[in-house]
Amino acid sequence: MSYLKTKTPRIREKRLDTLNAWLGPAKSAVGEFAGDEAVQRIRTFSQSTNDDVLHALRILSRIENSVTVIHAPRGCAAGALYHKLALGQGNWLVTNLDQKDTIMGADRKLRKAVTSAHRTYRPEVLFILSSPVAAINNDDIQAVVDELQDELELPVIPVFVTGFASRNAVTGYDIVLHSILRQLVRGREAGERNGRVNLLSVTEHRADIQEITRLLTALGLELNILPDHATPGSFVQATGARLSLSLNQDAENYLGTVLRDEYGVPYQAPGRPVGIEATGQWLVAAGKAAGLEQAAAELHRQESARIGRELGDFSLSGVRVYLSLPPGMAFSVASLVEEFGGEIAGITVSHLDVLHKARLEDIASRHPSLQIHVADGQPFEELNILRRIGPDLYIGDGNHLGQVGRLGIPVVSLEHSRLLGYDGTLILCRRISVVLKNRSFGQRLASVALPYKESWLQRSPNWHIKKEVK
User: Fold this and answer.
1) Superfamily of domain 197-304
2) Residue 91 to residue 104: CA distance in whole angstroms
3) Whole-angstrom Cα distance, residue 208 to residue 373?
4) What is the pLDDT of residues 352-401, one digit of tens each?
5) CATH code for 314-467?
6) How far, rounded to the nearest angstrom, does the alpha carbon of residue 410 sit from its chain's CA centroid?
């Protein structure tokens, strides 16, 4: 069956056996994906977590020449406000549903918001983002789309997120990409190959895209970058590309898979280009897929020599590092840490699924007892683990880095920080060097008590993680 026949894609739990609650050694994590279906866990207490609305907004805010109508109470638009104020990205309106709307329906309010958005921004494409409130209210968003699409003479794309269909917020990425492909390219025949390479990017820093673009264009490749900063035409062009290259398949695996299975575009996901060796492996894999393997290998030789001279005697020998990152990034940064002689003390990831099986097997073969913690927004569990492990350095991108600092552990934040390629490696290593040499701020922060009672922290870190009972 075609991926695009249904209104929404299969949730990550069904499609990829995705787990969002787990704690144990790496060798046991491998075993979770050895059978036909992973055993799901639940939390009897959850401190906080993201939902699919936030992840959907992340993609929508970066689609060029677009506007998003968020069909929700205004609180649901907070994520869009963040993207606009912090990153200067995304045009949006919110229908501001109130109590009366949730009882009587808000189709009329949605029509008014859509026409207002079209009049104000004159976009090339308009998205209607659903929400948990709209899903519970059962507003007929599709009817509004059918009514206004011809009237406004532009694509009006409904994005049906509910906030509760999946426990894994990354499903929001799949829902947006499914909606765009279903509306813009479904039913089109795959055209002649246009010679371009689809560079699939969802979560990357703009400077990282510039670095990867620099490397690939040096090989003579013409790129079609999507969905990050793509136009509607980018998705149409993607169906005729010679190849799709992944930068982080955690986020864009669905896009690469649909383009491969529906339109015959080969999909390469050779890991993330983080660290000197991993960047070389990624570049050579990309070059091989495009018939440019020797050129890619030579470019790697030149770039790695340059970065080696820049880094000089930088080393992480004797440094125990804890990582708290999305899984694709965590495993990639783990390789970088070990490349420079460091030791991985433990890893917290937002989720785990079959996409990570090979990396888990590799880690388990070398460090079978390494503790893997699966949690999205559970800082009290993570702080409990950190107190027991006592690492020398913490690398993360969460919103609880200040709490980690209260443990006296030096912290490097990767939020909004470039990371990919040779230059990304150089920047990260320099940041780590500065943090390890200058510990005065961390020492002062360590005098501030944690916000949790000691009785909480005396419990085992997996106290609230239980096997799901069906």
Assistant:
1) Nitrogenase molybdenum iron protein domain (3.40.50.1980)
2) 28
3) 27
4) 999 999 999 999 999 999 999 999 989 999 999 999 999 999 999 877 88
5) 3.40.50.1980
6) 25
